[in-house]
Structures are given as structure tokens and as C-alpha cells.
Design a protein that fits this description.
single chain, alpha+beta, Rossmann fold, TolA/TonB C-terminal domain, 2 domains, flat
Length: about 250
């Protein structure tokens, strides 16, 4: 990890990032394994010891922040969500690592990105023969229970269930920071709309920065629905996708 961390530290310093967080390394085949988590821990430690002019955010804060938002580390599988998560824990940049296995050779590739712009800063790659202990860790898939996987709530519009209809849907507030930075787009959520017509178990599937994801969640929590009907014609809880979109007005 030391040579890779040294390259990353140099790139982070040159790009004048004041802080960085290391996310779990992913792979092979987009899997989350104990090896990926262990290597990310070692990479984070090596960055801390590099004496670079930046701080390294404690990785434990990632899991805590994700849990507060109804997400798990395995949901951080793309740059958009990775950037959002890194920003939420106060980091200006983040490291995204991927693992590839070919025979007895393990390839480790790390890429550094800026949180604000999601711009790629620098990447580096190395390969190592895989030891028995590494292969053991690689075989141990990290199982994070998805926030909605154990609820047993069926999807709206399927198997005799109707769609809930929103009857009170105030617009989500446009965060001042988002306006300042001219951020626009769509936050995608999955929610459970209960028999009482209220949204719960809200999970972010596609975030936006600068407070827009949080504003989308708060807005949807305040909405009121005519609940879906089950096969028996009675109000029933269903899971559905909700999109909250912001557009900047042009003069």
C-alpha cells in the first residue's frame, strides 16, 4: 500500500485538497470483500503517515453516516454516490479502489477524485501475487443487509397492488449552497408508503450534493398519499421509486 499511498498523497497535495477519505476497495466483479475493506484500512493508514498537508477522515465515519441515511457501504458502487458520501463526512477528496484477480496475481487500482467537481485527480496501479491469507479474505464477502431487503414490502403496481397517489406534495426546498454552486438535477429515492399514506424507510439511490439529497428526504417525509390498495382492496404498504427534481431558472 505504501507506494500507492505515496502517489496519492502527492496528487492530493498538488491539487490542494485539504482532506481525503478512503472508501472500501471494490472487486473483483464489484464484490465487497474483507480483503477490499482491509486494503482500504491499510491505504488510509499509509495516507495518514504520509505527512501530507491534508487530513485523512476516519473511515468509521462513513459507515455511521451511511447508516443515518439508510444506506450501507456496499451501496457506494459509483462515483456519484461516493462523492456525495465523502462530502457528507467533510472530505474534499476521496479514494476509490478496485481489485482485479487474474490467476495468482491481484491488481490494485486506486483513483483520487475531488468531491466538489467529481473530477479525477490521479490514479495509480500495482500488482501483487496473492497469498493464502489474502485469498481467504477475498473469499469472505462482506454482507451488508440492504435497508429494504428484509422488510418484505412488495413493489407498487405489481401482484394486484395499485400505486399510491400523492395528494399533498409540497416542493422540496432548493438549498442555498446548491443555488450558489448552480447544482440541479434529480434525487432518486425508494420509499415505503404505508397504509396511513405516509412515506417511511427512505433510501437514497441517486444523490445530489449541497444539501439537495437531505432536502428531498425531508420533503418526501412531509408528503401525504392516498395509499395503495392490496389484492383484497384494502390499504396496503408498498415500495416505490420517487424522483425529486430541481431546475435553475434562467433569465
Amino acid at each position: 500500500m505504501q507506494p500507492l499511498a505515496a502517489n496519492a498523497a502527492s496528487a492530493i497535495a498538488k491539487s490542494k485538497q485539504k482532506s481525503v477519505v478512503v472508501l472500501d476497495f471494490i472487486g473483483p466483479e464489484n464484490k465487497h470483500t474483507e480483503l477490499g475493506r482491509t486494503l482500504a484500512d491499510k491505504f488510509s493508514t499509509a495516507l495518514t503517515r504520509s505527512s501530507g498537508p491534508f487530513s485523512v477522515t476516519e473511515r468509521g465515519r462513513i459507515t455511521e453516516d451511511l447508516a443515518n441515511k439508510g444506506l450501507v457501504p456496499s451501496s457506494v458502487a459509483n462515483i456519484d454516490i461516493a462523492s456525495w458520501v465523502a462530502g457528507e463526512v467533510g472530505a474534499e477528496s476521496f479514494v476509490f479502489g478496485t481489485l482485479t484477480l487474474s490467476g495468482d496475481s491481484l491488481s490494485i487500482e486506486v483513483d483520487c477524485y475531488s468531491v466538489k467537481s467529481e473530477k479525477w485527480i490521479k490514479g495509480s496501479k500495482t500488482a501483487s501475487s496473492i497469498s493464502g491469507e489474502m485469498r481467504k479474505l477475498l473469499s469472505q464477502t462482506v454482507e451488508y443487509p440492504e435497508p429494504d431487503s428484509d422488510s418484505g414490502i412488495p413493489a407498487a403496481g405489481k401482484n394486484g397492488r395499485t400505486y399510491p397517489k400523492c395528494v399533498y406534495c409540497p416542493h422540496a426546498a432548493y438549498a442555498d449552497e446548491a443555488v450558489k454552486n448552480r447544482v440541479q438535477g434529480t434525487v432518486i429515492l425508494t420509499v415505503v408508503v404505508g397504509p396511513d399514506g405516509k412515506a417511511d424507510d427512505i433510501v437514497v439511490r441517486k444523490p445530489l450534493p449541497d444539501g439537495l439529497s437531505e432536502n428531498a428526504i425531508e420533503a418526501v417525509k412531509s408528503w401525504t398519499f392516498d395509499p395503495a390498495l392490496g389484492p383484497d382492496g384494502k390499504p396496503a404498504a408498498v415500495r416505490q421509486v420517487i424522483e425529486v427534481t430541481w431546475h435553475l431558472h434562467t433569465k
